[in-house]
């Protein structure tokens, strides 16, 4: 099994080079931030998609949709530069579905953090990303937001898989996924980890297939050993 060396690595985000016929960004040293053109191209692609960023609050949807949101109390904790040193972008600047934006704001996420600003546009463009940031800087949102944006509810199979090292993290990530996707109209998230009965997970997936004639699970959050077990059993199948 391949292992990754993590010593002497600073906060980094880079595109991976072209392998197996996949178009990816240029490889960058871990200590070097991605070139502005990489992020600029991703933002440019979003603008060409017919959703250009606008000054003073981002995309306008024609109604005051934010007024109906159930926002949590404002976080008054002191924030470090790992969270506050942003470029001034808004979540609306990324052409996200309004329903996804509703979930984001109801999580209490007001503006994208630095790691989210760097990751989200590139991930939305379909490119692979290798990113690293400190705990509490918004890493979960950096990959969950573009992942959920790309979920197609018309496709009844597993479309995204998140691998996490511990049961606690799997439960945490699944709860965040459920929260920010709650307005999307039916995104199904399943957490499965070691330390629980494998048969129960198999029965959960099998019951959905028999009842609805489809998996009806779009996102699986799992520890490595458990998802390998489900794949070997032929239960966890992607598109």
From TrEMBL:
Keyword Nucleotide-binding recorded: yes
Domain Helicase ATP-binding as annotated: residue spans: 120-239
Region (Disordered): 56-83
Keyword terms: ATP-binding, Helicase, Hydrolase, Nucleotide-binding
Domain of life (superkingdom): Eukaryota
Motif (Q motif): 89-117
Positions with biased composition (Basic and acidic residues): 61-80
EC number from the UniProt entry: 3.6.4.13
Matching PROSITE patterns: HELICASE_ATP_BIND_1, Q_MOTIF
GO MF annotation list: ATP binding; hydrolase activity; nucleic acid binding; RNA helicase activity
Gene3D superfamilies (UniProt xref): P-loop containing nucleotide triphosphate hydrolases
SMART domains in the cross-refs: DEXDc
Residue ranges constituting the DEAD-box RNA helicase Q domain according to the UniProt record: 89-117
Enzyme category, top tier: hydrolase
Name under which the protein is recorded: RNA helicase
Organism: Pleuronectes platessa
Origin organism lineage: Eukaryota, Metazoa, Chordata, Craniata, Vertebrata
């Amino acid at each position: 099994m391949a292992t990754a060396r993590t010593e002497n690595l600073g906060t980094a985000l880079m595109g991976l080079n072209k392998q197996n016929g996949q178009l990816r960004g240029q490889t960058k040293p871990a200590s070097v931030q991605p070139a502005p053109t990489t992020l600029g191209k991703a933002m440019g692609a979003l603008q060409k998609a017919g959703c250009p960023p606008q000054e003073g609050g981002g995309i306008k949807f024609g109604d005051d949709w934010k007024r109906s949101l159930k926002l949590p109390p404002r976080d008054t904790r002191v924030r470090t530069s790992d969270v506050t040193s942003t470029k001034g972008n808004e979540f609306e600047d990324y052409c996200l579905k309004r329903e996804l934006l509703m979930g984001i704001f109801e999580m209490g996420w007001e503006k994208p953090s630095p790691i989210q600003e760097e990751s989200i546009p590139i991930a939305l463009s379909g490119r692979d990303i290798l990113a690293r940031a400190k705990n509490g800087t918004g890493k979960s949102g950096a990959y969950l937001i573009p992942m959920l944006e790309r979920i197609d509810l018309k496709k009844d199979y597993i479309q995204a898989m998140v691998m996490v090292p511990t049961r606690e993290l799997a439960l945490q990530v699944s709860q965040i996924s459920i929260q920010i996707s709650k307005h999307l109209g039916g995104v199904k998230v399943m957490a499965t980890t070691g330390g629980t009965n494998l048969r129960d997970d198999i029965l959960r997936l099998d019951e959905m297939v028999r009842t609805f004639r489809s998996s009806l699970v779009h996102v699986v959050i799992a520890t490595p050993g458990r998802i390998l077990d489900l794949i070997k059993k032929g239960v966890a199948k992607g598109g």
